[in-house]
Design a protein that fits this description.
Layout lengths: L2 H13 L1 H4 L12 E7 L4 E7 L2 H10 L1 E10 L2 E10 L10 H10 L1 H11 L13 H25 L1 H6 L3 E4 L6 E9 L11 E6 L13 E5 L2 E7 L9 E7 L7 E2 L18 E7 L6 E9 L5 E4 L3 E4 L9 E7 L5 E7 L8 E9 L7 E7 L5 E5 L5 E9 L4 E3 L3 E3 L14 E4 L4 E5 L8 E9 L7 E2 L9 E5 L8 E10 L11 E4 L10 E8 L2 E7 L6 E10 L7 E7 L4 E4 L7 E10 L11 E4 L11 E7 L4 E7 L5 E10 L5 E7 L4 E4 L7 E10 L8 E6 L1
Antiparallel strand pairs: 1-2, 2-5, 3-4, 3-6, 6-7, 8-9, 9-12, 10-11, 10-13, 13-14, 13-15, 16-17, 17-20, 18-19, 18-21, 21-22, 21-23, 24-25, 25-28, 26-27, 26-29, 29-30, 31-32, 32-35, 33-34, 33-36, 36-37, 38-39, 39-42, 40-41, 40-43, 43-44
């Protein structure tokens, strides 16, 4: 290879490694063939490559073979595919002597030839001379050759064919579909490389798309062009950029070689390509367009044309000298200055207005002549801030510092009316009132007080524009109401009078204090209760509850006693039943106190009971016993008590019988002894019948 070609290659190696060295590491991958296919109107183009440097090195020696299977004809899939071995001999890189002229006319051919056949390949090596370092350096050289060879083949389809990495199949039919397989001819004992394939037919033809999102930003003697590279990455790997300076009559290519993406960095990836072009002169229209080149050497359609001209930038700011209020109090005269030497870069002025000093500016007078230095603005607001913007020929803008104009105004807004509000159970207050309608109205301030006659405190940190506000208060305080009033302000901060005070009743969440039992009495069929009522101001009644002791029944409300009454007579109590009584205080909000400790009360049964119907004693001396019988037709008898006494002794309790017993035989007797028997019925209520007495001589 000639010295001229080697010098040219060295220059290209300085440019292109920026992309190659930013790729993923090549080592550690399985060796296999990767295949791409592209369909034209009458041919199928194939491109392939292997995935490891070693496989590439051996493939350059042994070459590649291509097998084609006809899978389908029309809509029918063949049961037995038609197999054709396209390559009778393996496809290898062309001999070095055939590259000579091609490399002189094509930079990518020079790169590929040097990578495949060059004796030396310049890369940065590790220092040192031991065996391990030598092996590492050799591996780096092989990786660099592999990378540059594939890169060059990607950029030019003819280079790919010369490198043994491409093939064009023209022996095809319109209604057939083919499965192509590309194999390396490397002997299996030397290296195992997996084949690759692609399935295509002429029906897969489609025209290449035009590059999209092509834009240009024109500046002083320069333009920055950019387009979306990522979206069409599968179609194009390089681009041709063209420029026209005669309004599109002719376009000339901007670079000697097509442009490739130099920023495809995995860690800092961009989806756009950029190109900065220097413009020979400003104020002249330059048009640009791009065309993509596919890995198969196909040139796609042109993009849309980007048109524009460079313009000298605007570098001076206008300055407002005076913003003076007119005597009519409704207009202002704004005067400014701008350097005469900068007029050539100026297009026009714009007057901006806002009622805030730092934001909200809007253009109120556009397209002011660049020769004008004073202008009158009417329809002033209460507060007015003005700026002047100089607009350059290139569209750039520079704005002055603001100046304020404030018409005279000492008329306050109307006093707020119809102030109302509510407070919920969480202490959230909702206030509303009628909205003011003044043109210069600014907002409201809201004031609050716990008591109407105490000093009000402002709860708004700044004026609020709306006639509603939400406030939060503490409900667990002694005051039962909260008071509010509102004041309106205009944009000159003239205050209105205060609204009428609204007093909102706070929801009651504090239960009343409980009552206290003072005394009770249970007699003559009634239970009388006395208590000390609750001390809470909002207490309205005392609820009396009762239940039977020792049962699972719930408490029953038997009465509500309105305050200030502190007593109740229960006439529904059943004598002999043991009751529990408790009290609960209820306030105006229906909140209840805790129930007090219950009283245990039993109403005695002191109503008179009838005497026993019959009570007899029969002496049986032969059986040495006295048979005692009785009869008593009364309900709720619990038991009978039998008393016994001898001669002049006082009778004592002798026996107790249940309510179903009506007979007893007494055998504990002494002959010639007089006995006295007494019998009394006991009721479940505790009441007792009169005692029935009988005397017996034994």
């Amino acid at each position: 290879m000639s010295k001229k070609v080697i010098i040219k290659i060295c220059w290209l190696l300085i440019i292109f490694p920026l992309t190659l060295w930013s790729q993923e590491p090549i080592g550690g991958k399985d060796a296999e063939v990767k295949v791409l296919g592209f369909v034209t109107k009458d041919a199928i183009k194939l491109r392939w490559g292997v995935t490891t440097p070693t496989a590439w090195k051996h493939s350059n020696t042994y070459g590649y073979t291509i097998q084609r299977k006809t899978i389908a004809i029309g809509d029918s899939i063949l049961k037995e595919p038609i197999i054709k071995n396209i390559t009778q001999v393996p496809i290898k890189p062309k001999p070095m002597e055939e590259w000579e002229q091609f490399a002189l006319s094509n930079d990518h051919a020079a790169i590929a030839a040097q990578a495949i056949y060059g004796e030396g390949f310049e890369v940065e090596m590790e220092d040192g001379g031991n065996a391990l370092i030598t092996i590492l350096n050799q591996a780096k050289v092989l990786e660099q050759r592999f990378s540059f060879a594939l890169f060059a083949a990607d950029q030019n389809f003819e280079v790919a064919k010369f490198s043994g990495l491409a093939y064009v199949d023209t022996d095809i039919k319109q209604n057939e579909r083919y499965l192509y397989r590309v194999y390396t001819a490397i002997p299996p004992e030397k290296m195992d490389v997996k084949f690759g394939g692609v399935y295509l037919g002429l029906d897969d033809y489609y025209p290449l798309p035009a590059p999209i999102d092509f834009t240009g930003i024109y500046k002083d003697h320069a333009v920055t062009l950019s387009w979306n590279y990522e979206l069409l990455k599968e179609h194009y790997n390089s681009y041709i950029l063209e420029r026209s300076d005669d309004e599109g009559t002719t376009f000339n290519q901007m670079t000697d070689v097509p442009m490739v993406n130099m920023n495809d960095n995995k860690n800092d990836k961009s989806d756009r390509m950029f190109f900065i072009d220097s413009l020979p002169q400003n104020n002249k229209v330059y048009q640009y367009r791009i065309k993509g080149i596919s890995p198969f050497g196909e040139i796609g359609p042109e993009s849309k044309i980007v048109s524009g001209s460079g313009k000298k930038p605007l570098v001076h700011n206008p300055a407002i000298l005076e913003a003076k209020l007119a005597s009519n109090n409704t207009s202002a005269r704004i005067t400014w200055e701008f350097p005469d030497e900068a007029l050539e870069t100026l297009s026009h002025f714009e007057l901006n207005h806002s009622n805030q000093v730092k934001e909200g500016y809007k253009v109120v007078m556009p397209n002011i002549s660049k020769n004008t230095r004073s202008i009158t603005y009417t329809n002033l607001d209460v507060i007015n801030y003005f700026t002047i913007t100089a607009v350059g020929n290139n569209g750039g803008k520079r704005t002055s510092f603001p100046q304020m104009v404030q018409p005279v105004d000492d008329t306050p807004p109307a006093t707020p009316v119809q102030l109302t509000g509510t407070i919920d159970s969480l202490g959230v207050v909702q206030l509303q009132w009628q909205q003011n309608t003044e043109v210069d109205f600014l907002g409201y301030r809201v004031f609050r007080a716990n008591l109407e006659n105490e000093e009000f405190t402002q709860i708004t940190f700044k004026t609020i524009p709306k006639s509603t506000i939400t406030d939060t208060i503490n409900l667990k305080t002694l005051n039962t109401k909260i008071h509010y009033k509102v004041q309106a302000f205009d944009k000159r901060y003239n205050p209105s009078g205060f609204s009428e005070v609204v007093a909102l009743k706070k929801p009651d969440i504090i239960p009343p204090t409980p009552p206290v039992f003072e005394s009770f009495n249970a007699d003559h069929g009634v239970v009388k209760l006395e208590w000390i009522t609750s001390s809470s101001m909002d207490a309205v009644k005392t609820s009396v509850y009762r239940k039977e002791k020792g049962t699972d029944t719930s408490w029953q409300l038997i009465t509500d006693v309105d305050l200030p009454e502190g007593g109740f007579v229960d006439e529904s109590a059943i004598p002999g039943v043991v009751y529990l009584y408790t009290l609960v205080t209820v306030d105006e909000s229906d909140l209840e106190s805790e129930p007090i400790a219950p009283l245990t009360i039993s109403l005695p049964d002191n109503q008179p009971k009838p005497a026993l119907d019959k009570f007899n004693a029969l002496v049986n001396r032969e059986a040495e016993q006295i048979v005692i019988t009785w009869k008593y037709n009364q309900p709720k008898v619990l038991e009978y008590i039998l008393y016994k006494g001898e001669e002049e002794t006082k009778p004592t309790m002798y026996k107790v019988f249940d309510a179903s017993t009506t007979k007893f035989i007494d055998q504990k007797l002494t002959i010639n002894t007089a006995y006295t028997y007494l019998l009394q019925a006991v009721f479940t209520s505790g009441a007792k019948s009169p005692i029935k007495k009988i005397g017996v001589e034994y």
